[in-house]
Amino acid sequence: MKRKTILLFGILAIFSTFSIYSAQAHNPDPLPPHGGKIYQTEKYFLEMVSNPGGIRLYILNRHLKPLSPGEMEGTLLLKFPDGSQKISDLTKEGDYFKATLPSNPNHGFIAIATVRVNGKKQVGRFAF
Fold first, then answer.
1. pLDDT value, residue 104
2. 2 and 64: one domain?
3. Which of the chain's ends, N or C, has fewer CB atoms near its CB within 10 Å?
4. Total domain count for the chain?
5. What is the pTM assigned to this prediction?
6. How many CB atoms lie within 10 A of CB 111?
7. What is the pLDDT of residues 20-60, one digit of tens each?
């Protein structure tokens, strides 16, 4: 009886191990649907896309589908290598927020987005 119990627990342990590794293999880090950078908050994903026209910020659900900004509000803090900073309100456009970049820097800056979603503050930090 003891051998059967030990054997059963051994088989369950092996099966559990394979299940965990299998789940991890099928759920890798999410790929940004708009080609930007992803930051995960407690309930949402924030995706930031930087291009010569400025910055776009998408608020994504757990299935990486964009939420409509609707009643959301947001601000963007940009920190540049020379120590200068720019704070601006995020403007709603379609299913994302947008902001302009001064002098269109392609890299070397930090962007910190703060958005209120359903009354709760969501903060994402992105390095470009």
1. 54
2. no
3. N
4. 2
5. 0.72
6. 22
7. 333 333 445 778 899 999 999 989 999 999 888 789 999 99
